[in-house]
Structures are given as structure tokens and as C-alpha cells.
Amino acid sequence: MASETAPFCVTGAAGKGAASPAHRPHGHVVLAARIHDALVFAAGAVAAVLLLLCFSSLLAPAPVPNLVAGPSLPFPTSFPQQPQEADSSSDGLYARVAAAPRTFYDDPKLSYAVDRRVAGWDAKRAEWLRLHYPFGLRARRGPGERVVMLSGSQSYPCAGDGGDHMLLRFLKNKVDYARLHGIELLYNTALLQPRMVAYWAKIPVVRAAMLAHPEAEWVWWLDADAVITDMDFAPPLATRYKEYNLVVHGWDREVYEARSWVGLNAGVFLIRNCQWSLDFMDAWASMGPASPEYARWGKTLKATLSDKPDAESDDQSALAYLLLKNPKKWGARTYLEHEYYFQGYWAEIVDRLDGVAARYRAAERRFGPALRRRHAEGEHALYAAARNAALRKKAGGVPGPDGGGQKASYWRRPFVTHFTGCNPCGGRPNEIYSNESCAEGMRRALNLADDQVLRAYGFRHAGPLKDDVRPLLV
Question: Across the chain, what does the average pLDDT equal?
């Protein structure tokens, strides 16, 4: 068996299941001479290992714990590398693939489509992990929760001027964060279910990613127009969310009492890779445009949710409805996050970003030169942890929680700034916003995030709305 437990769904009070005890070898008689030989061999092996560790500790920096992934490792690989001496000829490679153990992928009934249920997923994942990571995932990839970040956009060019360039900048932002935190990013432009269009298109992608990445414990969806504006912050997966299978931005009172369709936001969410989640995605998709009951669901949502303005079944209203009507089945394992900006509404954030950046620079100067030292980009996790620890101090720090917050007195960087309603690819924002406010807000947020990346390369933007850069002064 693998040396670590497969990350199953959270269903009971105890959370994840405990690992089964290892089998102990049966007792047997050994001659004294053989015992002596074994002890000598063991002593030599221990000495060799200690010597190797001593050299490796001099050559490699100590790993820094991180809640998203192991930052001490390079960009993660999903599979262990093959030994160098393995036959690399075409026949040899084919023979190795043909001889690989059978897994759930070999089941002809397996379907990635949302209209075909996958059963027994937790057991199938556990067996796959046992075969591919016999010593456990952490033995290969270091500490931390294993995450696949997902985002995507349409496959054809944007209608609005500059829309494709803006999508490129949004993508670069996610690539930067994934690289800094050692997580994998999948950006999709294919419509996996032709009838599940617009905001519904993400559900088939997320579901397919769960099956394509059994090594990932979490799948993290971010809408294309969401900007990660705090490159240092990592969601508390292993602590705050350890008893939950779904994390979305929202408020319990707004969803369960006010029955509001805007009591949560479905544009950014974390979902655990397990059977509960697959079943939830199936229930969610059943309310979408691929369902023959789509029109009926729209009327049901309008009648159930207090402030829904139309009779269209959209993904956000459907999510609120599922939690509201199934508090034990779905709501009990869903965390509605509002203690920090898991995803923040851009209109209440962007005008404060210049003040946020100024307070961070002032705090770094107050705490001495160590936080401003030049360092390799691969050391980002260590410096991010030190910076956040300093910023939390009451004396000289920056008020607010890690990841930002809504109070006017909070000045920490918002984790995610979501430009909902701006429609950068379509060319025309929601009528309540102007093109200028959206365009300026997006540039401010993207430049704030980009400056956090550029500092490792010795540069920063010349201003919050400027594209040119200048050398960064120590």
C-alpha cells in the first residue's frame, strides 16, 4: 500500500480516513552470525545515508511549508520519472506502456461527460495512487495540498478591441501565481459540452479535470476575468478547509436566510477531488442548459430566490439553490468564505489599490532591509511568509486579515479581484459600469500583481497605470 492515505471526501466528523496499519513480518529464527552481518550492513547503510544528507543539506535550501503545494520542489510532475537505464526504443516504450497495470482508465464505461455518473471514485483514485506513487505523493512532491488550477475562455477571438490582449494578461497573472506556488495550471478553450455555454461551460471542464488528475486533491476554478492580486497568499486548505469539499465566496445568512442569489459567487471556487464532488457537479449540471428541465429550473429558481430578477437558470443561482434546499447533503460540506477576499468585487477594491501598495512599501521599510533583500524567485515562499508575519504585527504592520478584507480600515492586499460584469472579451461591460472604469481597474489590479513578480527580476512598473517599467531600487 502507499505510505499515505488517499485524500478522500470529507463525510464524517473525523474528516479524512486514517491509513491502514502496515503488516508486520512473521517472526523467524536467525543465526547469530547472520544477525551480526545484518547489523554491520545496517550500520554502514545508516552512515552512508547520513553522509548523503549532510552533503544535500549544504547544497539545497531547507523546504518552506506552504498550504498550496511544496515550494521547495520545482514545477511538479504528475508522474515519477522513468529510470535512465530503461529501454527507450520504440518497441521498448510500447512494451512498457502495454505492460502497465490496468486502472480505471481502462474501463470502457468511464466517461468524462457530465451526463454519465462515475461511481466508486474514491476507491479508484486510491488504487491509482498506490500504483503510481508506491511511497506516497509527498515522498515525490513534498508537503502541502496538491492543487490543479483551472481557467479558460472561448476558442475564437474576442469581439472587443484589446480583449485578446487583456485575456493574455489575465492568463499571465495565473501562470505567475502557479509558478510561484508550485501548482499546475490548465487553461481551457474547448467547449466540452456544446449545450453548456457561457458560465455553465466550466462545469464539464472541472469534472473532466478531476478524472484527468487523480493525483490532485483540489481543483481550483478561476474565471478568466479574475486577477490574483496577492501573490504571497495561499488558501488555508489543510487547516480551515480540511473538513469541507467545496469552498466559495459567500455568506451563510445571505444564502440560507435571505435566500439571495448574490449571497455567493460561483466565479471562483475550490472543490475537492472526490466522489462527493463528482456527485455535486452532476447535480449542478442537471440544472443547466443541457438538461431537458432547463426552462423549468429557471422558473423554480426565480420563485425560490428572493431577489432573482429573471427566470433564467444560471450557474450561481443554481449553486445557491442546491445549498439552500440540501443543507445536510451539500451545505454541510460547503464553506462560504467571507473572512478574506477569496474573490473580491472589483468595484469596491480598485480605488484602494494605490493605498494598499503604499502601505506595503512603508511597512517593509519600517521592518528593516531583510524583507527588501534581493533573492531568487524560487525563494518566494520564504520571503512571502516573512513578509506576511511582519504585516500582521499590530505595531508597524498593515491592518486586515491575510488575503484582504471588506472593512474600510483594512489595507491588506485582496487575494483575488474579480472583474465580474466588465466583460473584457465581449467589448461591452454591464450597463452599470463604464468602459473606462473597467479598463482602468483591470490595469491597476494587473500591475499591482505584476509588480510582485517583477521584483524578483529587479523591476517594477513606472506607475499603477503605466506599461513601462523601471529598475527597482533596493
Answer: 85
3-state secondary structure of 369: helix
Q: How far is CA 382 from each of CA 57, 61, 307, 378, 404, rounded to the nearest angstrom?
A: 17, 10, 45, 9, 20
Q: How many C-beta neighbours within 10 Å does residue 323 have?
A: 23
**Torsion over CA: 436, 441, 442, 443 (sign):** positive
H/E run at residue 147: strand 147-152
- 466: alpha, beta or left, given left = phi > 0 and alpha = psi -120 to 50? beta
Return all residues near 419 (Cβ < 8 A) that are at least 6 apart.
225, 226, 227, 346, 438, 441, 442, 445
- Give me 52's grid cell: 548523503
State the average pLDDT over residues 91-116: 90
Instruction: Return the percent helix, strand and coil in the chain, to nearest 5.
Output: 40, 10, 50
The amino acid that residue 163 corresponds to is G
Task: Compute the CA torsion angle 271, 276, 279, 283 (nearest 10 deg).
Answer: -70
Tell me the C-alpha to C-alpha distance, in Å, between residue 248 and each of 319, 340, 403: 10, 12, 15
Domains of the chain: 109-337 (3.90.550), 346-467 (no CATH)
Radius of gyration of the chain from its Cα atoms, rounded to whole angstroms: 25
pTM above 0.85, yes or no: no
How do residues 261-290 score in pLDDT, each as one tens digit?
999 999 999 999 999 999 999 999 999 999
As a whole number of angstroms, the distance between CA 9 and CA 261 comes to 27
* 69 contacts 76 by C-beta, under 8 angstroms: yes
For residues 207 and 281, the answer to whether their CB atoms sit within 8 Å is yes
Residue 442 CA to residue 17 CA, distance in Å, equals 43
Rounded Cα–Cα distance for residues 342 and 336 (Å): 10
- DSSP bridge partners of 151: 187
Cell readout for 136 is 506516497
Residue 216's nearest CA partner among 142, 148, 134 is 148
